[in-house]
Structures are given as C-alpha cells and as structure tokens.
Amino acid sequence: MARTVWDSTVGKKTVMAVSGLIMLLYLIAHMIGNLKIFFGAGEFNHYAHWLRTVGEPFMHYEWTLWLIRVVLVAAVVAHATSAYQLSRRDIRARPSKYVHKKPRASYATRTMRWGGIILGLFIVWHILDLTTGTVHSGGFQAGRPYQNVVDTFSTWYGNVIYIVAMLALGLHIRHGFWSAAQTLGAGSRTRDRALKTVADVLALLLTAGFIAVPVGVMTGVVS
Ligand code: HEM
Q1: Domain span at 69
Q2: Residue 108 is inside which H or E element, if any?
Q3: Among the atoms of ligand 1, which is closest to the Cα of residue 52?
Q4: At 58, which CATH number?
Q5: Which residues does ligand 1 sit against, CB inside 6 Å?
Q6: What average pLDDT does the structure give for the chain?
Q7: pTM of the full predicted structure?
Q8: Euclidean distance between CA atoms 146 and 79, whole angstroms
C-alpha cells in the first residue's frame, strides 16, 4: 500500500507538500528566534542555551534538539528525493520527436528546481558556519551564537551568501506553499486568491525577518 502511494505522482507530491510544511513551521520558529538578536547578546545566547534544555527534566540535555534535527533531516531527504524523482519523470514524459522545439519546464518549475539546489547548498554551508564552525570566518565560539552571527555578517561573502539564499527561500516558499495547498486539496475557485495572498505574505515576512539580521549587523544596529 505505502509502496503504491510512493510510486504514484500524487503520492510523491503529497510527500513534498507535507515535508515542505514541516520545514516551513521550523523556519517560522527559527526566524522568530533569530530576531531576538535585536535584544542583545544576553537574551540571544540565553535563548540558544534554552534550545538545548527544552523538555528537562523529562528530556536529557539536547534530546529535544536532536529530535528536531532527526525530523528535519527526514523532511529534507523526503523533499529532495521526491523532487528529484518527479523531475526525472517530467523529463522522461516529454515528447522527443520535436527536437527543435523542445518544450521547456515552466518558469515556476525552473525557479523551484534552482531554488531547491541553492537552498540545499545553503543549508550545508549554514550548518558548517554557525553550528559546527568549520567554515566560520572568526574564531567560532560554541555557546556564543551572538558573536558568531556578528562575525558571519562582518564579511562581504557572508552577507552575499545569506541574502541570496533568503531571496531564493522567499521565492521557493511563495510557489511551494501554493503548490502544497493545491496538492493537499485546499484549493478551490473561491479560496485560490486567499491562498495566493497567504503565500505572498508568508514569503515576504520570512524573507524580511531573516534578512533583518545581516542588515542589522551591516548597519551597526547589532554589533
Ligand atoms: C539570516 C538568516 C539566518 C540566521 C542569522 C541563522 C542563524 C542560525 C544560528 C545562530 C544557528 C545555530 C543555533 C545554535 O547552535 O544555537 C542556526 C542553526 C540552523 N539554522 Fe539558521 N539562520 C538563518 C537562516 C536559516 C535558514 C533560511 C535555514 C533553512 C533554510 C536555516 C536552518 C538552520 C538549521 C537547519 C540549523 C541547525 C540547527 C541545529 O541542528 O543545531 N537557518 N541558524
């Protein structure tokens, strides 16, 4: 049964929609958490520490954080695998006899594919930068994310990488949220306009909220 659903195009689209919505919830929480940087190092670092102790004493130190990490990795793998398989299917289904007039994927589809690749690369960079410190520009200090974030956005390439990724994220969420709503059956003639507005507002708020951090550092509001 599960196999049949997974093999169907609609099954893969459902996997994409559900995993996408899980990541969207994480991103809303992450963006709100990041904005605490405007309240100073004490509050931001305290929040980062809290992320590791949530659920205590029932949960051990970092258990909740690891649970979230496992769910997110599963969501990313499911999302990327179904995206890859759907795009292979789409390419195979194209008629090959019209070699000169090869039908190209629509603008939205191409933006989603490139956006997905950019975001995948960004997530790897971001974890190596601010979680493990492997590619960090300054002297990375575990447990001091405020200083680490300020160091990242004190380099030109840190700002370029994050801002380009956040713009890609906005476009990806704008179209992705809309597609997910259609796949999950939320779309209808009366609701489509409202769904489009929700997608626009979500994308705009997330992009602006995330970009506020590098802009805050660049303008000296956060230092
Ligand atoms: C300006 C934008 C962003 C800033 C300033 C930022 C900041 C941070 C910081 C400071 C951490 C480390 C937290 C800690 O160890 O306590 C972190 C972790 C993380 N961020 Fe971001 N983030 C941004 C955007 C994003 C975006 C757009 C995504 C996803 C597309 C993302 C996904 C993650 C993930 C998956 C982790 C790893 C969590 C973990 O396993 O510890 N972040 N971020």
Answers
A1: 8-93+105-218
A2: helix 107-126
A3: 16
A4: 1.20.1300.10
A5: 27, 30, 34, 48, 51, 69, 72, 119, 123, 126-127, 130-131, 145, 149, 162, 169, 210, 213-214
A6: 94
A7: 0.93
A8: 31
